[in-house]
Amino acid sequence: MTGEPDGPEDRLHRFATIWSRAVFPVTSTSLTRPELEQQLLPLARRLSDALKARTFDAAAGQTVGAALVAAHCTDPEALSRSLDCVDAYLVLYCGEGGPQEALRTRSARLQHAMAAGYAGALRERTLAEQEAISQAALNARSTVAEALHASEARFRAVFEGAAIGIGIADLEGNILQVNGALLRMFGGSEQGVRGRKVPEWTHPEDAPQVWRLYEELVRGEREHYHVEKAFYRPDGTALWTNLTVSLLRDADGRPQYQLALMEDTTERRLLNLRLRYEATHDALTGLPNRTLFFERLEKAVSAGNDQRFGLCYLDLDGFKTINDSLGHAAGDRLLVEVADRLQSCATAPGEMVARLGGDEFVALTTGPDTEREVDALADRIMNALVTPVRIDGRELTVRGSIGIVEGPAGERGPAEVLRSADITMYRAKSAGGNRFELADPEADARAITRHGLTTALPAALDRGEFFIEYQPLVHLGDGSVHGAEALVRWLHPQHGVLGPDRFIPLAEHTGLIVPLGRWVLEQSVRQARQWQERHSDAGPLRINVNLSPCQLTHPGLVQDTVDILEREGLDAEALCLEVTESALIGADDDLLKPLRRLAEMGVDIALDDFGTGYSNLANLRRLPVSILKLDRSFTQGMQQFPADPVDLKIVEGIVSLAHSLDLAVTVEGVETGAQAEQLRILGCDTAQGWYYARPGPPERLHELALVDATG
Predict the structure, then answer these.
(1) pTM given for the model
(2) N or C: which end of the chain has fewer CB within 10 A?
(3) Cβ atoms of residues 48 and 96 within 8 Å
């Protein structure tokens, strides 16, 4: 298009031109506008490079901000116009072809960095000027005292020509003389300044030591002091200053006057307050951010005097779905609406709401009665979320899960409190969401332990902390040892021996179950081969290995099994893989295909925990299984004599059905001789349980097999 820059360099020059035109009218410089543009061009290039860099570098923006001060752009309007120019034109001229949303976020962060660099450089420059002026004034103190006697003209030149405010008062606080700079600070009225005594210049934000230092100086006990002090101007506005007060003595060393040097720091303070606000508040919602919230939480949990605190940790349910379906712009508008509603819920003294990030918010209440107040606060939040939010013509239902932590101050640190609230919030979410839960120390401990086990799992496998115990499988017909089931254990360095119920779900969640399962299969097959070599006369001993649902869907299951059997030299008929009934409910042909291939090789497939998955018995015909492992819940009624007749009928029916389908039946959890005998009469094939032996080392099975062989 005619009039637009052709290439990146042209666009960069155009951006520098716009920038120079914006700041030139408010810049104190002898340069022409084109000369200023040449000074801004490398700064524009630095911003352009930082905008498109792979990672964000705040130093680039800080360097540009500092360079503005070096270029004499020290008027606060120059910073404001520069930030507006960067906001409006940096992405337009220097961000061609990139993701606009990400570039605008990067541009906003560069503006913050520029403001910080500008404030720092301006402060350093001002401090240097102040130090030079203060040092000159202090060095001139004795000269001024002599000049009062020798040269009034020389004193007046120094006094009136100073760039900082100077005032002289006697030791009673009567203001004797002030220079023009000081008058301008206070609005230009000499009568308004000289008509008041020094002790009258109090301000609510005076530091406690200000007037103590003043009294020490006028008594001659102190030569000077330096403080940051606020004054009221005649119009009621605040004037903030860096104030240095020195004691002037006469020729004999007696205290005579006090000399005040004032530097106006009001604009700098306002800029610092703005930067502080931006650093402690969320840019999207305007709520306090994580930084400010942690400051407030730390005060709340460390307060004394029987104070308590209550914390609500809120996470929106299903927020990711809204972002994915309607876009991040709609998600941002939803977050702003939620923030407004939460803000209206926490208006009492001692209450605050903050956004931690994403769709996570926190509400804090403090005081002596937070046990009641935090529940009421959670109720208000849940009620505030009931009304749907309208965005782009759609009504969005907002739900949230809240974790509540309440307790006395002084017992826990802020990080521990927030962790407990986070854990409790996820407990509420796991219970269905749209609810709040109270923190439970025992639940917290379990969650922390669970997290610790999860993070330790990968290294545990590498360090060889897992081992396998074997529980015999006994033939009910003659009582011989038929084989064994491999049961993995974890010898944890802190928690001792952990059963599979403690870590198998975690391994499935993290995906470690695949390498762990492969290791269990390899160790078990190797052990089965060793058993066969040690007592071949007793007949082949079979090994049963459990497969998790995650392993069933792993593409390497069949090949891993074949490789292990061949490497260890074990026949496929000596291996049985156990799969829970729930894992095969509704299984399609793709899921059953690897099991069918293994069954065709001769590997037995056992349907574990049969009877707990509510599967259709007719489905048994299409499953590639050869063994049913009957769940212990069906046989508990047979532990006593006489056995429960209902249990007998159920087991008899299952056994009859299984045998009619050419399936063998194994029973778990056999604990008494009466139970074993009844199962034998009902026709069950094999059994395992504490009646025969607890899970133990492989040598134990070898001993049992030898006993059977020598019978």
Answers:
(1) 0.51
(2) N
(3) no
